[in-house]
C-alpha cells in the first residue's frame, strides 16, 4: 500500500502594516496639541482662542497628508515615528503662539507673530516629507551619491562664512526677508556621506595595531579620516563661532564610526579630540569664551552679557516651574527676550509644565531616537544600518546640546530644539530626516516576497510504503 502526497509551495505570510495604529496615534497627537492651544487661550484671555478651529484643521490636514503618504508609499514603516513628530510639532506651535500673546513681546517695535510662520514652515516640512517618500523608492540609491554628498555638505557648512554674523555666530544665510540655516540640512547630507564611506572602509578602520591600557589603538594610516573630520569641525567653530554644529558634526561621525567598527577606542579618541579642540578654540575666540563664562557663572554677568542673563533667567524659569509647573500660559519665560521662542523655548516648557512636562518631552524625543535605532537594527543592508543610526545619532546629539545648554549642563550652543522651537530650517530639515527614517523602516519591515511557484511542484510526488 502506498500514499501519494502532492507538495505545494507555501507563500510568505503578510505581516500587519500597523497603519491603523498610526492613524489612531495621530488623532491622539492632534487632540493633545489642540487641547494645549485651547488651554493657553483660556489662561491668557479667559476664553477659547478664535483661531483654534483653523489651527486644529490645519494640523489635522498636515497629519492626514503625512499619513496617506506613508500608507501609500511606505506601507510597512514604523507606526510611531510620524505620530511622535506630529505631536512635537503641534505642541511646539501651541507654545510659540503662547509666547506671541505676551504683552512684552507685542510691545517691541520689531515684534512679528511667529506661530503663523511656523505653521507655514511645518506645511513645507510635511511636503518635503511626502516628497522623500514619493521620490526615494529605495534608500540604497543614496549610496551612489556618497562623495557628491560630501561636497554638497561642505559647501553648505562653508557658505555662512560669507554672510554677516547673527548674535555672534555665522550660521545663517540671509536672502532678502528670508533666512536659512544650512547646517540643519548639512547634518542629513553628511550622514549620507559617512554611511557610504564607512560601509566601504569599516574593515580597515576596525584593524588595531597595538593594545594600550585596555584599548585597541587604530593604525596610524587609519587615523586620517577622523583627523580630517576633527579639523573641519574645529574650522567651523573658529570661522563661524558655531559650537553646536561643530559638536553635532563631529559627534555624529564618532557614533557612526563606533557602530561601523565596534571599536571603543574610536569613542575615546573622539572625546579626547573634541575636548582638546573645544578648549583650544575657547582660549582665543571671544564669542566662545563668553558662552563658557556664562555657563560657569550665569549670574555674574547679569545686566552685562545677553547670553549670561538669558541662561540665568532660564534657570529661574525652571526653578519656578517646580514639579507640575505654573500652567500653560501662566509663566513668565518671555522675560528671556528674543530667544524665548527659539533657543530657550524649553524654559517655557519647564516653567509652565514643570519637571513632569519636561520629562514627558524628553521621553518623546527619546522614543524617536529609540525607533530610529530599532530601524537600524532591523535594516538588512549595512548602508541602511549606518544611515539610520547616523540620523538617529544626529537627532539625539542635537536634543542633548540644546537641552543641556538651556539647563546649564553645557555651554549654550545656539541650536534650535527639533520641532518645537521657532525655526523654518530646523522644522523642514527634521521632517526630511523623519521621512528618510520611515523609508528605511519600510524597507526593513517589509516581508520578503514569496518565491515564484515552480511548474514542476505539482508533479512532485512523495511515495511512502
From TrEMBL:
Residues 445-465 are annotated as: Disordered. One of its GO terms (cellular component) is plasma membrane. Its main location: membrane. Keywords: Cell cycle, Cell division, Cell shape, Membrane, Transmembrane, Transmembrane helix. GO terms for molecular function: lipid-linked peptidoglycan transporter activity. It is a multi-pass membrane protein. The chain crosses the membrane at residues 23-44, 50-68, 80-99, 119-136, 145-163, 183-200, 221-239, 245-261, 266-284, 344-365, 386-413, 419-438. It holds the Pfam family FTSW_RODA_SPOVE. GO terms for biological process: cell division; regulation of cell shape. PANTHER family: CELL CYCLE PROTEIN, PEPTIDOGLYCAN GLYCOSYLTRANSFERASE RODA. This is Cell division protein FtsW.
Amino acid at each position: 500500500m502506498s500514499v501519494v502526497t502532492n507538495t505545494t509551495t507555501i507563500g510568505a505570510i503578510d505581516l500587519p502594516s500597523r497603519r491603523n495604529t498610526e492613524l489612531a496615534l495621530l488623532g491622539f497627537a492632534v487632540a493633545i496639541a489642540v487641547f494645549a492651544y485651547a488651554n493657553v487661550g483660556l489662561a491668557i484671555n479667559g476664553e477659547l482662542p478664535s483661531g483654534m478651529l483653523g489651527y486644529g484643521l490645519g494640523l489635522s490636514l498636515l497629519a492626514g497628508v503625512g499619513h496617506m503618504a506613508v500608507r501609500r508609499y511606505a506601507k510597512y514603516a514604523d507606526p510611531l515615528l510620524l505620530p511622535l513628530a506630529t505631536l512635537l510639532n503641534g505642541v511646539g506651535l501651541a507654545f510659540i503662539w503662547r509666547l506671541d500673546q505676551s504683552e512684552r513681546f507685542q510691545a517691541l517695535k520689531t515684534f512679528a507673530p511667529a506661530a503663523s510662520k511656523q505653521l507655514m514652515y511645518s506645511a513645507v516640512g510635511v511636503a518635503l516629507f511626502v516628497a522623500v517618500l514619493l521620490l526615494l523608492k529605495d534608500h540604497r540609491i543614496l549610496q551612489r551619491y556618497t562623495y557628491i554628498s560630501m561636497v554638497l555638505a561642505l559647501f553648505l557648512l562653508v557658505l555662512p562664512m560669507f554672510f554677516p554674523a547673527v548674535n555672534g555666530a555665522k550660521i545663517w544665510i540671509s536672502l532678502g526677508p528670508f533666512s536659512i540655516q544650512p547646517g540643519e540640512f548639512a547634518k542629513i547630507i553628511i550622514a549620507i556621506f559617512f554611511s557610504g564611506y564607512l560601509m566601504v572602509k569599516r574593515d580597515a578602520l576596525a584593524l588595531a595595531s597595538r593594545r594600550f591600557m585596555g584599548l585597541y589603538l587604530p593604525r596610524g594610516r587609519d587615523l586620517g579620516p577622523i583627523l580630517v573630520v576633527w579639523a573641519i569641525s574645529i574650522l567651523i567653530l573658529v570661522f563661524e563661532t558655531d559650537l553646536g554644529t561643530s559638536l553635532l558634526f563631529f559627534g555624529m561621525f564618532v557614533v557612526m564610526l563606533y557602530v561601523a567598527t565596534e571599536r571603543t577606542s574610536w569613542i575615546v579618541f573622539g572625546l579626547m579630540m573634541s575636548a582638546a579642540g573645544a578648549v583650544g578654540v575657547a582660549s582665543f575666540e571671544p564669542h566662545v569664551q563668553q558662552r563658557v563664562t556664562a555657563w560657569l557663572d550665569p549670574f555674574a554677568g547679569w545686566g552685562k552679557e545677553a547670553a549670561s542673563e538669558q541662561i540665568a533667567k532660564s534657570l529661574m524659569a525652571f526653578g519656578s516651574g517646580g514639579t507640575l509647573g505654573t500652567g500653560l500660559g501662566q509663566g513668565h519665560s518671555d522675560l528671556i527676550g528674543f530667544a524665548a521662542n527659539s533657543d530657550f523655548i524649553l524654559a517655557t516648557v519647564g516653567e509652565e509644565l514643570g519637571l513632569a512636562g519636561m520629562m514627558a518631552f524628553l521621553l518623546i524625543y527619546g522614543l524617536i531616537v529609540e525607533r530610529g535605532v530599532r530601524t537600524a537594527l532591523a535594516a538588512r543592508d549595512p548602508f541602511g544600518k549606518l544611515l539610520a543610526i547616523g540620523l538617529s545619532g544626529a537627532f539625539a546629539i542635537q536634543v542633548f546640546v540644546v537641552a543641556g545648554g538651556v539647563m546649564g549642563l553645557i555651554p549654550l550652543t545656539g541650536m534650535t530644539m527639533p520641532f518645537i522651537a521657532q525655526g523654518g530650517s530646523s522644522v523642514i530639515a527634521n521632517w526630511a530626516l523623519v521621512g528618510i527614517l520611515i523609508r528605511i523602516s519600510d524597507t526593513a519591515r517589509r516581508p520578503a516576497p514569496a518565491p515564484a511557484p515552480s511548474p514542476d511542484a505539482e508533479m512532485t510526488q512523495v511515495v511512502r510504503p
